[in-house]
Design brief:
142 residues, alpha+beta, 6-stranded mixed β-sheet, 3 helices, 11 strands, 18% helix, 33% strand
């Protein structure tokens, strides 16, 4: 929920929608429901899915670890709209981030690692900064 609050507080709600685990992403006929999702606000207020997510965040759990690390990144990163795929640890203050390059528009093979209270995830394409200290406040120790 903190990811949602941080994203929503930095994005114009007339342009962007940020939701917590209640909206689907369509990928080549496959449907995924990420933990957190940011996407352009749709004119159709009845839609239940989007094919154009901009940020996808998954919170790692033991049951989803392999899927979130191995299967989901290439699927999400195949979407031209996606700027960042973020995996967040639920046990420690740390995230892994695949962020589209501003220059080549490609995703790196390996994610950036952000660990500790001083770390922040920066998404320049959206003008967003997500300090891990704010994301994990009261959840895990620094």
């Amino acid at each position: 929920a903190r990811f949602v609050r941080l994203l929503a507080s930095q994005l114009d709600e007339a342009i962007w929608t940020v939701l917590l685990g209640e909206f689907a992403v369509e990928i080549d006929g496959d449907i995924r429901i990420p933990d957190v999702l940011a996407f352009p606000t749709l004119e159709d207020g009845k839609a239940l899915s989007t094919a154009a997510p901009v940020v996808v965040i998954e919170v790692l759990s033991p049951s989803s670890l392999l899927t979130d690390l191995d299967q989901k990144p290439p699927r999400y990163m195949s979407l031209p709209s996606l700027e960042a795929y973020i995996l967040a640890s639920q046990d420690e203050m740390g995230c892994w981030v695949w962020r589209r390059s501003d220059d080549t528009r490609a995703f790196p093979g390996d994610p950036e690692t952000h660990v500790g209270a001083a770390a922040a995830i920066v998404l320049p394409a959206l003008g967003v900064r997500l300090p891990l200290a704010d994301v994990y406040r009261g959840i895990v120790e620094a």
